[in-house]
């Protein structure tokens, strides 16, 4: 036991940022049952850094770390976690601890946290919350998902239009406990609580106290109805260069505010959806388990199978011209096409994970292993379908067995290559997003044809 202690007691003075070595030191302290050293190692980490540490660990490694930290875990860490990891962490924390964490978060973050829970788990967490907090969360959850009503923060600063600058400043100084942690504008409202303008904090502090806020406010502010989609929210912020915008109900009354930090998350989420959708990888990422990843990708691979069969049917129209083993010429494109599509799915996840620094040397082996398993399972599922079709189509079971084996081998190689290629290019300081596709296509096409035709030469011809 003395050797781990010697390692971990030196780490607080040797790490100035989050590194794989720091993650290893934290786990060494966890295994040594030294909560004091664990807390020392993570005490200066920001919520996003602590989230990064948790994301680098497997689910089995995270549990003892969370047990040691117990209530010392900053609730903001939950907001920064990847969705898949957050689901696992919340499951390990239990409803009471999740409720306590949500109560300390800004309302928009608490709604996002609880809204992602399953129905049963959500009810358990809400039941553990104070009545006032629960009512606020339930009101927010009544709005449609991915709308301004779900995204907005209820903590805001609103003042009447007949107040002076001095009155506003005095109000801000006297209400520090009630103010949101971060805000950029003061919202000016009329007697019916409808937004009539906004005043930037910079403008407020530069203006003399007797001046009315109505004289310095930006008239006709951009307001967002609670039903506005998050895509439209992001477009408005981008096009108008906003840092915050009031949210209003059906009567035009102020109910919340959306700030630019929320919009950055929206833009990232929408971009991720587009990229993953383009590659057919669904919403599964490097933290999703094998079952979830297979379920997200298999449907798209099945769609690709249909398009590959259509291409093969076109080739089959020229059977009279193909004199030598017609079946091989007809079926060969399927193997290469399926491998290319499967590799692209893995590639999309890997490139994004590298870009966001989620994929590192520490978790690369685990990610590669998962992808190989996913490729194997998807390969077997599709091999059974294609092999059966080929057997019925050409009346020869050996042809079905050969193409099935080739698909399994090519999907395993494709998923393996979809991780190794971008990792290798990234190590060589070459942008994997630009170059990976070329190498991946080469691997899947060459290997696909080689395995399929090689097996046919051995067992058929």
Overview of the molecule:
- There is one protein chain.
- With 461 residues, the chain is an alpha/beta fold.
- It folds into 3 domains: 2-142, MgtE N-terminal fold (Alpha Horseshoe); 158-259, CBS-domain (Roll); 280-459, SLC41 divalent cation transporters, integral membrane domain (Tetracycline Repressor, domain 2, Orthogonal Bundle), CATH 1.10.357.
- 67% of the residues lie in helices and 6% in strands.
- It is built from 23 helices and 7 strands.
- A 4-stranded mixed beta sheet has the order 1-2-3-4. The protein has a 3-stranded mixed beta sheet with strand order 5-6-7.
Task: Give keywords.
three-stranded mixed sheet, Tetracycline Repressor, domain 2, MgtE N-terminal fold, 461 residues, 23 helices, four-stranded mixed sheet, disordered N terminus, 3 domains, 7 strands, alpha/beta, elongated, CBS-domain, 67% helix
């Amino acid at each position: 036991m003395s050797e781990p202690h010697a390692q971990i007691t030196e780490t607080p003075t040797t790490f100035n940022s989050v590194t794989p070595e720091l993650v290893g030191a934290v786990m060494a302290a966890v295994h040594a049952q030294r909560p004091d050293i664990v807390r020392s190692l993570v005490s200066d980490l920001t919520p996003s850094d602590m989230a990064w540490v948790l994301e680098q660990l497997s689910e089995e490694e995270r549990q003892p770390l969370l047990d040691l930290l117990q209530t010392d875990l900053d609730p903001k860490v939950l907001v920064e976690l990847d969705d898949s990891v957050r689901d696992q962490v919340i499951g390990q924390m239990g409803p009471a601890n999740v409720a306590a964490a949500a109560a300390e978060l800004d309302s928009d973050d608490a709604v996002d946290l609880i809204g992602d829970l399953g129905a049963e788990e959500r009810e358990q967490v809400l039941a553990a919350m104070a009545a006032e907090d629960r009512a606020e969360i339930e009101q927010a959850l009544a709005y449609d998902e991915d709308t301004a009503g779900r995204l907005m923060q209820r903590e805001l600063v609103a003042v009447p239009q007949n107040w002076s600058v001095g009155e506003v400043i005095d109000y801000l100084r006297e209400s520090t406990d009630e103010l949101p942690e971060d805000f950029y504008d003061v919202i000016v409202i009329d007697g019916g609580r409808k937004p009539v303008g906004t005043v930037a904090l910079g403008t407020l502090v530069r203006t003399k106290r007797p001046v009315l806020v109505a004289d310095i406010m930006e008239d006709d502010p951009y307001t967002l109805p609670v039903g506005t989609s998050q895509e439209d929210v992001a477009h408005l912020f981008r096009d108008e260069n906003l840092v915050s915008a009031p949210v209003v109900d059906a009567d035009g009354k102020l109910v919340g505010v959306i700030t630019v930090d929320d919009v950055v998350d929206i833009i990232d989420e929408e971009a991720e959806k587009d990229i993953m959708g383009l590659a057919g990888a669904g919403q599964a990422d490097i933290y999703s388990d094998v079952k979830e990843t297979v379920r997200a990708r298999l449907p798209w691979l099945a769609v690709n199978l249909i398009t590959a069969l259509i291409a093969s049917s076109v080739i089959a129209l020229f059977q009279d011209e193909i004199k030598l083993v017609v079946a091989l010429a007809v079926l060969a494109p399927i193997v290469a096409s399926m491998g290319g599509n499967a590799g692209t799915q893995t590639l999309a996840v890997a490139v994004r994970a590298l870009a966001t620094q989620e994929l590192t040397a520490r978790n690369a082996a685990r990610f590669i292993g998962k992808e190989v398993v996913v490729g194997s399972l998807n390969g077997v599922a599709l091999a059974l379908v294609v092999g059966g079709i080929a057997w019925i189509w050409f009346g020869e079971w050996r042809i079905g067995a050969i193409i099935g084996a080739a698909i399994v081998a090519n999907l395993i190689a494709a998923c393996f290559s979809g991780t190794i290629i971008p990792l290798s290019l990234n190590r060589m300081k070459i942008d994997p997003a630009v170059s990976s596709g070329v190498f991946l296509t080469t691997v899947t096409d060459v290997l696909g044809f080689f395995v399929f035709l090689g097996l046919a030469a051995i067992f058929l011809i």
